Amino acid sequence: MNDVPGIWTHARLLLRKDLMTEWRTKERLSPMVFFVLLVLLVYNFAFELGGAALWEIGPGVLWSSFVFASLFGLQRTFAAESTNDCLDALLAAPVERGALYLAKMMGNVLFLVGVQLLTLPLFGLFFNLTPGLYLLPLLVVFLLGSASVASIGTLFAAMASHSRLREFLLPLLVLPVLIPALISCVAATGFILAAGIPGRAVQFWPEELTLHVGMLALFAVVFSTLAWMLFDFVIEE
Amino acid sequence: MTRILAVILSLAMLAAVGAVFLHAPTEVQMGDVQRIFYFHVSSALSAAACYFLVFLGSVLYLRTRKDRWDRFAGVSAELGVLFSAFVLFSGPLWARPIWGVFWRWEPRLTTMLITFALYVAYLMVRSYGDPGERTQRFAAVVGIVAFVNVPLVHYSINMWAADQQLHPPKVELDPAMQQTKLICYLAFGCLVTLLMRLRLNQERQAARLQALATTTHQ
Amino acid sequence: MQLCVDNVHKRFGSTVALAGVDLDVGADTHLLLAGANGAGKTTLLRLLAGLTGPSDGRVTIGGEDPRRSTQQRWRLGLLSHQTLLYDDLSAAENLRFFAGLYGLGADIVGPALADVDLTDQAAARVGGFSRGMKQRLALARATLHAPEVLLLDEPFTGLDRRSAGTLSTRLLMRTREAGVSSLLVTHNVVEAAQFVNRVVVLRGGRIVCDEPWNTDDGERLQALCDHHQELAVHE
After folding, report:
1. Residues with Cβ within 8 Å of residue A226, at least 6 apart in sequence
2. pTM (2 decimals)?
3. What is the DSSP string of B136-184?
């Protein structure tokens, strides 16, 4: 029998191809980072950033900008495959559809975390955030939050690239589904930032964090599994 | 069959309205406004039932690829959205005299609002997609995702707005009130059944017409 | 290696692309799929490649649904009028990527590029290639894993006479290998005569002609296809 590589090998190859393309073209990460900057600018005129605002609206501003930027980036998930009908080559190849989902989802997670890490200093700047080790748990929230967005966003991105509505469909579908994850991201970020309030005893892992991190992990696992199972139905013509 | 259902529904609704205004006693704290409760809660239950039917129809469509399940899911979603809209409409009507505000971001209402948005998105996928098998597939996928999301929404909204809870967690009802509630549930059950039947018939006829039109063009 | 199309219907919304098609293709069969635009040729090809599924009926390759079986898809090679290549990667990178998907090592890339005269373009970005070069690379990509079945969807589109000739020669070499079957969809019926040993004409989503073909006489083949398509005009 032919030596058909397994699903993880395929996912790795596809992901590597996407990362290589992004490294050359930089056409996903840069616009997303720039978009976050623009959204922050808009928020500055909508609210008073800085000072006490950090604890009240900081997490909300942070995560709403990430979510909007992620919608921006999710649109591009299958862009490379639409050009020259490369998707046909992938579907005709001995690649399991699930491998394509895994690769695209992991790619989206990497791009989203990348945007978050690159733009965190910007937030720190506008919100006068004191740098410190107490911010480290944010990495966990970033990772799980991105996984939550990517799990469902990748599935809907595959649909949106085929549909007549295209760009409009993606946000309409993704935003309502994401709300539970968004709630936990904002709450978790709030607890982490609160730990940095001057004068407070620094808590590396606030207790309330566990509940929300748990929720995010649940969301990411449930929806990646579901999306992986349903992906076959949306990727074929 | 439809006629029989219509007759049963008329009787049930008459009974329900009668029970709500005549049989159920006036609530001590809220007064007559409380009577909305019976329709409000019945609508919420009907909406939830419809959303489950969307999930069922979607799963069955993906397994069998039979158009009837797609129609079933679509009609269920329409009715679910309709009943949700009524809940979101009757809620504020009730809230204003009792809580003093039209809207509070409290768990039940917020969950209902998000669920409403989810299924409106589902209906948009159906109506804005090019008619055909692909849109049916996409709609089925959205129908499944939406339903799986509902318990998560419910749980996390409750977590988020626990302090905002305005709905009493468990209500002790007077026996007459309990009976009225059950009669209303029954009446709404008949309503859902009849509406589904009527809409499904309509959709089935439309599909038949479409099939005929296609054949004659060849 | 049997390709079977069993009473297949395919609808796109209210458009019927295929209306009850039966087709069996065995080894060493080189089939021309002819027909007017919208007759259903590309749809049939796409069904066999596992890119889409039938509305009714069954499509099998080696007895299995190509959409479900990675083993059976391993045996297919797809060449289309679109290049199916990544413009932002180099020729070598494209081939290395696809080789990896088929479980082949990177050592196969060099010979594959040499086969299509693109060795000196190995590190060049595919986006900058001419149409002819892209199609040659696409052929290399499609045949990296020595497929038993070649599915060719209008591969000569957009090629000038010389490039088309070069592609023809290389295609001919591949298809003459033992055990290989091919399905060719093309409007260039005259050129196709040298490739094929069977002709199937589709009209209105149905097969109206299915005959063996054993000459290189392109004009006669064109006449045969025209004849079956003209009947539509008179109906």
Report:
1. B144, B145, B148
2. 0.91
3. HHHHHHHHHHHHHHHHHHHHHHHHHTGGG--S-SS----HHHHHHHHHH
Coil/strand/helix, residue C32: strand
Task: Quote ipTM for the complex.
Answer: 0.92
**C55 lies within 8 A of chain B by CB:** yes
How many Å apart are CA B177 and CA A168, to the nearest integer? 46
DSSP state of C125: B
A positions 16-35 inside 8 Å of C (CB): 17, 20-21, 24-25
Contact C22, C207 (CB under 8 A): yes
Query: What pLDDT tens digit does each residue of chain A (237 aa) get?
Result: 467 889 999 999 999 999 999 999 988 999 999 999 999 888 888 876 665 667 778 899 999 999 999 998 998 899 889 889 999 999 999 999 999 999 999 999 999 999 999 999 988 888 888 888 888 899 999 999 999 999 999 999 998 877 666 677 889 999 999 999 999 999 999 888 887 777 766 667 777 889 899 999 999 999 999 999 999 999 988
Phi, psi at A183, each rounded to 5°: -60, -45
Q: For chain B, give every domain's residue range.
A: 39-159+174-217
**DSSP letter for each residue of A151-195:** HHHHHHHHHHTTSSSGGGHHHHHHHHHHHHHHHHHHHHHHHHHHT
Distance between CA C32 and CA C14 in Å, rounded? 28
Residues of B in contact with C204 (CB under 8 A): 218
Structure tokens at A71: 């919608």
Residue C74: CB atoms within 10 A of its CB come to: 20
Provide the shortest C-alpha distance from residue C7 to chain B (in Å): 17
